[in-house]
Amino acid sequence: MKLLIVGAGGVGTSAAQIIKRAGKEGAWAEKVVIADYDLGRAMEVTKQLDDPRFIPSEIDARSPAYLKMVIEKREVDFVMNAVEPAFNETIFEACFERGVGYLDCAMTLSVPDEKDPYHKANVKLGDYQFARHEQWAEKGITAIVGSGVEPGMADVFARYAADRLFDTVDEINVRDGDNYTGGGDFGFSVWTTIEECLNPPVIWEKGKGWFTTDRFSEPEIFHFPGGIGDVEVVNVEHEEVLLVPRVIDCNRVTFKYGVPAEFRQLLLNLESVGMTDAKRKITVGEVSVGERQITPRDFLVRVVPSPIESSVNMVGKGCAGTWVTGTKDGKRRSVYLYQVADNQTCLKKYGTNSVVAQTAVGPVIMLELIDKGIWNLKGVHGPESFPPEPFVERLAKYEFPAGLLEMDSDYADMLNKKALSDLLE
After folding, report:
1. DSSP label at 88?
2. pLDDT on residue 306
3. CATH number of the domain at 2-109+122-149+356-400, out of 3.40.50.720, 3.30.1490.100, 3.20.20.150, 3.30.450.20?
4. Is there a contact between 390 and 383 (Cβ–Cβ < 8 Å)?
5. DSSP calls for 7-52
6. Alpha-helix residue ranges (DSSP H) falling in 187-295
7. Closest of 406, 314, 385 to residue 356, by C-alpha
């Protein structure tokens, strides 16, 4: 595969590092062009990689003409979009026009309902992209949308559970939590954290479809593995809810994330004074932030400490996973499929924090599966549309092994009794 990574930030850099670290297993990546609006940053990343397969390039993700020029000049056949989702439509369409594959970590943005934003879904995450499915399929090219960790890995876990662990599926609930200390709260992106936390969360139910609810609603305590323990999680807008029910037969899909109470309030305070606005342009005078006319949110992105830099001294683990309930062999079953990453370990291996590294490994695995023809669907698809086993198997190969937690249920009771019986035999 001749790959173009748009964005030399945390996710793009981590993806390149993961490919490099894989050694012979990463040989499927024949050429990797790392492109950024800051050519110096792209050059620094490729210098660190010290591998002739990795080539720096300058790019402007806002310019269709520039994107198409780089795709053609560098002779790539697949593009990984590793920038903020505000650029998705432009990159997505440039790939279509040039006839190359496309993959992103977060889908095109939603637009809340103007009259009833906390009950009624309007333009949903990914609607723009899925509306183009037939055109992509007819052209014989592939777009995989929502392909990071959540969404991405979590969707694969949902498909794996539905295919391998259950006869019938009731609920698919993605749950994300951590026990980080000593770092910032903005994860891997200030812009994206604001977007997903302050938009109305989406829930899907069979017979009702997609609907929205209040921000940070329905708090619950979820016990995360890996030594993380109990974390309060709340509803947040996320792609899995828009992706999973398109493919997997179930009754309900939700996404909840461990947003600390004080950080929720900070976000609401920033919103109340207009600093989270992503549309209104403001003049920043002589402040050196690039363009003089930028949005308040873009201004925050420039002045808030970089999530990458602020996580250098952060310790602890983050857990991303999918909690599935349903029936197996006539008994109720409850399973949590997950991946835990340690921040300091990821910093040492990849030079980026665990949130970023977890986000990057999913796309790398998916790109390998596409290159080898193992994942081979044309059109626009989410990760749950593909066979899950090859992905799950490769998580360990790429040093991000998954886990399966059998939670309290009738089926778990049966397994526990059987385990003791087997020991006594």
Report:
1. H
2. 77
3. 3.40.50.720
4. no
5. --SHHHHHHHHHHHHTGGGGTT-SEEEEEESSHHHHHHHHHHHT-T
6. 190-198, 240-243, 261-272
7. 314
Q: Which residues of 360-376 are buried (b: 16+ CB within 10 A; e: fewer)?
A: bbbbbbbbbbbbeeebe
Question: What is d(CA 167, CA 327) in angstroms, rounded to the nearest whole number?
Answer: 6
CA-to-CA distance for 269 and 419, rounded, in angstroms? 52
Count CB neighbours of 55 within 10 A: 16
Domain boundaries, the chain: 2-109+122-149+356-400, 163-346+404-412
Q: 248-286, pLDDT tens digit by residue?
A: 999 999 999 999 999 999 999 999 999 999 888 887 765
What is the residue-averaged pLDDT of the chain? 94
Half-sphere exposure of 95 toward its Cβ, with a 13 Å CA cutoff? 33
Q: What is the mean pLDDT of residues 35-57?
A: 96
Provide the 3-class DSSP secondary structure of residue 331. Answer: strand
User: Hey, which residues does 320 pair with through a beta bridge?
Assistant: 176, 339
Q: Which two tokens stand for residue 354?
A: 């665990």
Distances (CA, A) of 138 to 177, 339, 371: 40, 36, 20
Beta carbons within 8 Å of 405's beta carbon, 6+ residues apart: 225, 335, 336, 337, 338
Taking only the tens place, the pLDDT of each residue in 357-384 is 999 999 999 999 999 999 999 999 999 9
Residue 421 CA to residue 419 CA, distance in Å, equals 5
Helix (H) / strand (E) containing 93: helix 88-98
Quote the pLDDT of residue 182.
87
Q: Is the dihedral of CA 97, 66, 27, 154 positive or negative?
A: negative
- Of 138, 141, 130, the closest CA to residue 108 belongs to 130
Which stretch of 22-31, 155-164, 178-187 has the lowest confidence by average pLDDT?
Answer: 178-187
Q: What does the block give as tokens for 335?
A: 């399973």
pLDDT digits (tens, 9 = 90+) for 77-88: 999 999 999 999
CATH class as words, domain 163-346+404-412: alpha beta
Statement: the pTM of the whole predicted model exceeds 0.85: yes
Beta bridge partners of 283: 293
| Separation in Å, CA 55 to CA 182, 218, 246 | 35, 47, 37
**Residue 288 neighbours by CB distance under 10 Å:** 7
Cα–Cα distance list, 183 to 64, 179, 232, 302 (Å): 36, 11, 19, 18
On the question of pLDDT at 422 being above 60, the answer is: yes
